[in-house]
Amino acid sequence: MNNSVKIYTDGGARGNPGPAAAAFVVVADGKVIYKDSKFLGISTNNEAEYRALIIALEWLKNNKEKLKEKNVLFLLDSQLVVRQLTKLYKVKSENLKPLVKRVENLTSTLSEVELVYLSVGREENRLADKLVNLKLDENLV
Question: What is the DSSP code (8-state) at residue 30?
Fold first, then answer.
């Protein structure tokens, strides 16, 4: 997967639940080609992590024709989300179940793209984390 597109996602809440934001960063050929963030209102940290993945998948769905590579590596610093999506953990939380379903529905529309979900340390996800905090700062003034 050396030639894969990498999409870093992150979500965070100040308080749990509390004001939350989600962000993602798309990297191709070692360069950031797109980034976005969104204020979510009041949410839990885990909900924000899933919402970050959802907005990234929606972007991918709308932009997949522009990408040269058909391998997309999603890099999340949420081990919980990765382990739930790869079926290592069951989704027990009722508030996460609709978000998981949305991820599954979006994934099904991307059948021509190989998606891989990996957990990375927070230091590897620095830019997405920074975007989350900037969006929170903008909306909590």
Answer: T
Specify whether the CB–CB gap between 57 and 36 falls below 8 A.
no
Ordered by start, the domain boundaries in the chain are 5-139
Tokens read off for 127: 């830019």
Average pLDDT over residues 62-86: 92
**Which element (helix H / strand E) includes 12?**
strand 5-13
Counting residues of the chain whose pLDDT is more than 70, the rounded percentage is 98
Looking only at the bridges linking them, the beta strands covering 71-76 and 114-119 are: parallel
* Region for residue 55 given its phi and psi (left: phi exceeds 0; alpha: psi -120 to 50; beta: otherwise): alpha
Place of tokens 């998606």: 115
**Tokens 């599954």, residue?**
104
Separation CA 87–CA 38 (nearest Å): 27
- Report the CATH fold assignment for 5-139: Nucleotidyltransferase; domain 5 (3.30.420)
Q: What is the mean pLDDT of residues 56-66?
A: 94
pTM of the model: 0.95
